[in-house]
Amino acid sequence: MDGYHYPQARLVELGRRDRMGAPDTFDVGAFVATLDAVRFSGAEVLARGFDRTIEEPVADSIRISPEKRTIIVEGNYLLCGDGGWEAVAPLLDTTFFVRIDDEVRH
User: Fold this and answer.
1) Alpha-carbon distance 104 to 95, whole Å?
2) Burial bucket for residue 3 (CB in 10 Å: 0-12, 13-18, 19+)
3) What's the pLDDT tens digit per position in 20-75?
4) Which element (helix H / strand E) includes 36?
5) In the prediction, which pLDDT does 13 show?
6) In angstroms, what CA-CA distances link 75 with 61, 72, 95?
């Protein structure tokens, strides 16, 4: 999911650079389009990756072949109910929510 962060320059334009990682700092529409393509296209799908050395998304850096259709997606907002995120859950077959003690999480 990190590949769907808006690029740094876009976050600055939007005045959201200091909020990177918040639900509204992701290109949710592009993320949903990728999930939709993986689920329904039957073709190879190119997905965005994320380069931690430069903290930027990298277009088309992940190839998902047609025969690999068990995809694990993780992220904090996958089950969020607004901001475009509500379109994600219907594209997932199974979801898990992991709740751990705040002390352990921190």
Assistant:
1) 22
2) buried
3) 899 999 999 999 999 999 999 999 999 999 999 999 999 999 999 998 778 899 99
4) helix 28-40
5) 95
6) 18, 10, 11
Look up residue 77 and give its amino acid.
Answer: Y
Long-range CB contacts (< 8 A, 24+ apart) of 10-14? none
Q: What is the distance between the alpha carbons of residues 84 and 78, in angstroms, rounded to a whole number? A: 10
> How far apart (Å, rounded) are the C-alpha atoms in residues 26 and 5?
4
HSE-up (13 A, CA, CB side) for residue 33:
8
Q: Express each pLDDT in 5-26 by its tens digit.
A: 999 999 999 999 999 899 999 9
3-state secondary structure 47-101: EEEEECCCCEEEEEEEEECCCCCCCCCCCCCCCCCCCCHHHCHHHCCCCCCCCCC
